[in-house]
Amino acid sequence: MTDDAPQPPAGWYPTPDGSQRYWNGESWLSLPEPSRSPLPTEPAEATPTHRSSRRTSVLVASVLVAVLLVVGGGALVWKLVTDQQAAVAAQEAADRAAVKEEAAQRAADAKAAAAKEAEASERKLRADSVPGIEDSIRAMAEKHIADGLIDGPVLSIDCSPVNGGSTDDLTEQTTVFECFVANVDNGDGTLSGYSYNSTMNWDTGSYTYGIGAP
Asked: Which residues cross the membrane (predicted)?
């Protein structure tokens, strides 16, 4: 270049070897070659904001996930606790029902045993009453012998419920007895004698008796 020629404006200019040099308007300067990557522009300045927004979104998403995990975990724990409490309550209810049922069964067994014992006692009382009836019939027959109404002596007395009855039949409130007063031994294993009778009222525990068939 000559001094009279117009000078190009200052700036970076390419060289034959493909590099760039800086012209300050008067001379070439040995400045480091600028980077070949494009300089930041206005859209590039928004990039940090975009990345920040993305980070914020990721952070919010992470927080939401954490919250969901906490809420979900809390719900799971609540369900487990609720299920456990329900199971315990059900078991306690079953235990109470079992205890109640066992108590009811014991009461039923005790009632049945008491009823059975009462029946056995009533049967024994009725059976023990027969000898008392027979004693009363004997006393009456001996008086009749003394009065000359029948012949003596009194060999034996047997009183039995009529019509195949039994003192074990606790549904009967009265029992009629046919009594036989033997005064003769026939020698063939049979006896002869007189008929007497008695009627027992089990409700009152009293009885009547007399001579003759019932």
From this structure: 58-78
First-to-last alpha carbon distance for the chain, in angstroms, is 173
Q: What pLDDT shows up at residue 53?
A: 63
Tell whether 5 is covered by a domain. yes
What does the DSSP 8-state code read for residue 163? G
Domain containing 3 equals 1-35
137 lies in some domain = yes
Collect all residues with Cβ–Cβ distance below 8 Å to 141 and sequence separation of at least 6: 150, 152, 154, 157, 181, 194, 196, 211
Residue 157 belongs to a domain: yes
Give the residue carrying structure tokens 């049967």. Answer: 123
Token look-up 């009778």 returns 197
User: What are the DSSP calls for 41-80, one per residue?
Assistant: -HHHHHHHHHHHHHHHHHHHHHHHHHHHHHHHHHHHHHHH
Pairing of β 191-201 and β 11-14: unpaired
105 or 19: which leads in pLDDT: 105
- CA-nearest of 149, 159, 154, 155 to 197 is 159
Counting the structural domains of the chain, the total is 2
Give long-range contacts, CB 8 A cutoff, 24+ apart: 28-31: none
Which positions ≥6 away from 165 have C-beta within 8 Å? 172, 175, 176
Q: In the β-sheet with 20-23, what is the strand arrangement from edge to edge?
A: 11-14, 20-23, 28-29
Q: What is the pLDDT of residues 88-146, one digit of tens each?
A: 999 999 999 999 999 999 999 999 999 999 999 999 999 999 999 999 999 999 999 99
